[in-house]
Amino acid sequence: MLLELAGLEVAYGGIKAVKGIDLAVEKGELVCLIGANGAGKTTTLKAICGLTVPRAGHVRYAGEDITGMPSYQLVARGLAMVPEGRGIFRQLTVEENLVMGAFIRGDRPAVRRDLEHVFEIFPRLAERRAQSGGTLSGGEQQMLAIGRALMSRPRLLLLDEPSMGLAPLLVGRIFETVREIAKGGVTILLIEQNARLALEISTRGYVMESGRIALAGRATDLLADPKVREAYLGEAT
Amino acid sequence: MDIFLQQIVNGVTLGSIYALVALGYTMVYGIIGLINFAHGDVVMVGALTAFTVITGLLGAGAGLPVGAVVALGLAAAILVCTTLAFGIERVAYRPLRRAARLAPLITAIGVSIVLQNTAMMIWGRNYLRFPELWQSRRFVIAGASITSMQVAIVLVSVAVMALLLLMIHYTKLGTAMRATAQNPEVAGLMGININTAISIAFVIGAALAAAAGFMVMAYYQVAHYHMGFILGLKAFTAAVLGGIGNLGGAMLGGLLLGVVEALGAGYIGDLTFGFLGSNYQDVFAFFVLILVLIFRPLGLLGERAGDRA
Ligand SMILES: Nc1ncnc2c1ncn2[C@@H]1O[C@H](COP(=O)(O)OP(=O)(O)OP(=O)(O)O)[C@@H](O)[C@H]1O
Ligand SMILES: [Mg+2]
């Protein structure tokens, strides 16, 4: 198991946002975590990344207990995140943003090559490499955030709603890229509101409802599940 | 002699010292949003450390060349100031990182008081006379006199500031520091240790403060446990004038403030029909501060809140 959450609980003050969840991601999988607004998806990711300290439970990654480990120690272990809202450094240039993604890497020539590789995946970024991150459109910022995460050569990539605020055409492209990244051997945990698209590219899925895992299973099974179809795919049963 | 040109020369000299000190305020503000009121006192500690080392070595008659004595004094000042600033951040500010804004601000004022009183116990309450190290030469250009000391101060300041800008804008470490200032949480996700980045900001600011402290002491040939107070306030004013959080702004603000103050001092007698003398020159800095806060609170080069670098 590459990533394993066991009995994870997170609270903000007195309010429990995540109420004891178990979740596992196997090496090479693309797993999605779907759920409505406020279900606790982002909170779960933050607990994995050391951005909030869980009240109870464990986060295990590659055989190591990383519960509450400060986030700056995780990249070196191969864990990268594309945060909700993208988290672009607005006053750094596109290229500087990408270089920051490779902050912990010392192998300069390889970093340069990966930079060019990201520019191949997202030619829009190449055209704007000297432009400051804050001037990019929402879609371009999402590409930059994904590219930046790739710059660390992650083993596990955590994506928090890459489709947020994007036009349908672009959402399709971003999902296509996510699928490609997974094919390239990166394990992915994808958080999404767009349940259909997420399940379509995933191997397995978890459905989160008010802090709990309500359903889990193979993506194809979830896509066929009447409850999921009704609640998350907007279909009448 | 041409008063106008003369005051420009004096103002640029003083202004480059303000700029060095202002950079310390602005770097710390940029990265943790704290107005480090103890920064002026770090300048004072730098000056007095250099004073002790330099006068000690000269007095011991070790026969070292003056250049070596100055280098040792400056190195000692930088070492003491950077260690001090590193420690202050660790002990006084870091525990309050998540506290309401007022708490670290009041702590900074407390640290300032502690530094001044400690310095007073070590170096006494009297003005300490700093010797003239080199026979200062004087050039007269277009009716204004420029001393070799003034030239040295401006050149050293410009060189140090250029190095800092290069470091911040063109190295990975500098980029990481800007990233941390803009979005510490995401910087952490990139593998940047935010605490280290913050410590580095304090240490760089303190090194600049040590250099500024030495130069201001050599310029006026005097040092005193209280010398950091007004100097710190003026440098803070310079940082606000340029746009606090903005490095270029601190440099511009420092120079402008030095020039405004020098011109003010040169003409205050004429302006007030002889009622006020040049000993009122300090009012100009604070007059500038008030005007900036009223008309351009973000400073000359300031950006929208949240976009500080
Ligand atoms: N910093 C915070 N302080 C207090 N409550 C918070 C905080 N962050 C999140 N919450 C609460 O925790 C719950 C879960 O939030 P979370 O952001 O994890 O939801 P989400 O599933 O990511 O939703 P969305 O799809 O809208 O992003 C919500 O009720 C939210 O209001
Ligand atoms: Mg969310």
Describe this structure in words.
The complex is a heterodimer of chains A (237) and B (309). By secondary structure, chain A is an alpha/beta fold. Helix content of chain A is 35%, strand content 27%. Chain A has nine helices and ten strands. In chain A, the strands form two sheets. Chain A has a six-stranded mixed sheet with strand order 6-7-8-3-9-10, sandwiched between helices. In chain A, strands 2-1-4-5 form a four-stranded antiparallel sheet, covered by helices on one side. In chain A, strand 7 (156-160), helix 6 and strand 8 form a beta-alpha-beta unit. In chain A, helix 2 (94-101) runs parallel beside helix 5. Chain A is globular, with a radius of gyration of 17 Å. The model of chain A has no long low-confidence stretch (mean pLDDT 94). In chain B, 47% of the residues are buried. Chain B has eleven helices and four strands, in the order ααααβββααααβααα. In chain B, the strands form two sheets. In chain B, strands 1-4 form a two-stranded antiparallel sheet. A two-stranded antiparallel sheet of chain B has the order 2-3. Chain B has a single domain (3-295), classed as ABC transporter involved in vitamin B12 uptake, BtuC, CATH 1.10.3470. By secondary structure, chain B is mainly α. The termini of chain B are far apart. The A-B interface holds A 49-51, 70-76, 80-81, 83, 87, 89-92, 96, 99-101, 103-104, 134, 148, 152 and B 172, 175-176, 178-179, 182-183, 185-194, 307, 309. The structure holds adenosine-5'-triphosphate (ATP) and magnesium ion (MG). Magnesium ion (MG) binds next to helix 1 of chain A.
